[in-house]
Amino acid sequence: MPLHPNSEQLQRCHAEAYARQVAQVRPLPGAVDLLASLSVAGVRWAIATSGRGEFAQQTVRVLGFDADIPIVTRDQVERAKPDPDLFLAAAARLEADIRASVVVGTAFGTCWPPTRRCAWSRLLSGGYGQDELERAGAYRVYQDPLDLLQHLD
Asked: Is position 21 within any domain?
């Protein structure tokens, strides 16, 4: 392989590496129970990921939910994070107003135009500290999905 692979080569190498590791993917503590609780309560939810569709489908299977979960991936929008396109597309797919939505994630956040604000909750499982996430604008910070589930009120 050349010293500087092109985009196609990088994507192929990434896909091969992901295929070798996907069997080891496990949901974060409480993730399955949190999503099931939201569904039982009638709360509509979607998954928005900066990953590509081929990888997202494999990862979501680990959650054990039906294939009809709304999933928005990097290859379905013009721009991925830090732009809000993923979350705007997820809200549109749910027929929900993004301004009345809560986005839960592990990364810092997105540069939201002032007219498209929503509440950001963050999970510490993304490698950032609580102080960093709060300074970045997180509405709430939780240890993991189980902690979030225990604080749904």
From this structure: no
The domain total for the chain is 1
Task: Look at residues 131, 129, 110 and name the one whose alpha carbon lies nearest to residue 119.
Answer: 110
pLDDT digits (tens, 9 = 90+) for 61-108: 888 877 688 999 999 999 887 788 888 999 999 999 888 888 887 765
Residue 137 tokens read as: 């604008």
Region of 109 (left: φ > 0; alpha: ψ -120 to 50; beta: rest) is left
CATH number at residue 123: 3.40.50.1000
SS3 of the chain: helix, strand, coil, percent, to 5: 45, 10, 45
For residues 47 and 69, the answer to whether their CB atoms sit within 8 Å is yes
Give the residue with greater pLDDT, 41 vs 119: 41
Q: Tokens at residue 41, please? A: 């309560």
- 23 lies in a domain? no
**CA–centroid distance for 88 within its chain:** 13
- The closest alpha carbon to 110, from 142, 143, 146, 77, belongs to 77
Q: How many CB atoms lie within 10 A of CB 8?
A: 8
Q: Which domain holds residue 93?
A: 28-150
